[in-house]
Hints:
By secondary structure, the chain is mainly α. Helix content is 76%, strand content 0%.
Amino acid sequence: MLLFVTRRVGTMALTMIVVSILLFILLELTPGNVATKVLGPYSSEEQRRLWLEAHGYFDPIHIRYFRWLGDFIIGNFGESTRFKVPVGDVLWPRLWNTAILGFAVMVVVVPLSLTLGVLAGMKEGSKLDRSISVGSIVFTSIPEFASAVLLSAIFVFYLGLLPGTSGMASGFDLAQLVLPVMVLVLYDFGYVARMTRASMAEVMLTNYIRTAVLKGLPYRSVILKHALRNALIAPFTVIMLQINWLLSGVIVVEFFFAYKGFGALLLEASLNQDIFLIEACAMVAVFVAVGTQFAADVGYTYLNPRIRFS
């Protein structure tokens, strides 16, 4: 097990290094572009030269890279040209806000989608299976901006039950979190449910499940102790991938409801060419991506112990 974890950590570190090199080449390789983005297009050539000299951009490229990477490791991301404050002062609160939103979504999506998927997979081809499958496809086919408009029209303008924005200007408000969570749940649960249904239906046709049923074991015990554990391997992969999507793929929802999250921050940084903020957001997103994959690999060993020895 220790060797398994060590290999996964090494792969995670190597991935981060490769991505950091690519990010450095794309955004930091040309000093003139960096100075222009920081000082603005109307800055003089002399101003840019002095700024580059003061920040060590005339040093050899390998020295620049390792200094840049070292700053990232210790959390020194530079200063945001958009907000005029250190990047960390903006990044961490926004990341925390998205974590709250993502946690609320996963709390609803995981039990809902797994339950519906298992029920559909247990009775493949039944009316329940077809109803769940059609509903999952319909909701997943509706893009977030469309469901956001529809739900806002119903719950904000027609019923007047919920606020139309989620800016949290007066502090945390659970009511302002309801609509963004509803939009994301409606879009996401169908995909996980369909994956669970397919996996469960496949497991139910295996010989060991048929043998357990023929031996007279209680059907509930067969499902919970034998079928469910193996059926959860594929959905577990999808669920872990949803964490990456909830981090930076919810730009539409956060922007629509004015939610101050990581996705909206990334959009704002891109629109304003805030280079240091873009770099920090990219590195954090990659770190979360490789971190969730590491967690998925470790989770596999508990769902299927044979994997740890392969």
